[in-house]
Protein: Transcriptional regulator
Amino acid sequence: MRNLEQKLTELEGLIAVAVRHARRWSPPDADLSKQQIQLLHALCGKQRVTVTELAEELQLSASATTIALNRLEQAGFVKRSRDETDRRVVWLEPSAEAVNHMKEFRLFKQKLLMQMFGGLTEEETEQFIALVRKMISTLA
Structure:
């Protein structure tokens, strides 16, 4: 058991090093919070959605979601519109700028992952993915 604890401590340190290296790359959304990125990602995957639907999907409170969305709207990433039949309903849609921003972010992530996995063989990459899947399955 002691050996496992040592290996987990080593793994924790390695993950911290990987995160530090990844942060050196300047993502196109450095000015956005993690929560705002998650909101944009979820929003860009839909035509339109309500605050409640978005909050439920991301398991956030409606108030926290609204605050983050207000900032995204001020930045030009979110468009709000009232439902034509029920004026109480407010629809959220990603702006064209938000869609472009998320495309850039996906390209950034892809480039970062390609850099990280570039030193591995195809077999090693497959083994890594299989191990991560196995680890996740123990959490479910």
About this structure: Residues 2-24 form the longest helix (23 residues).
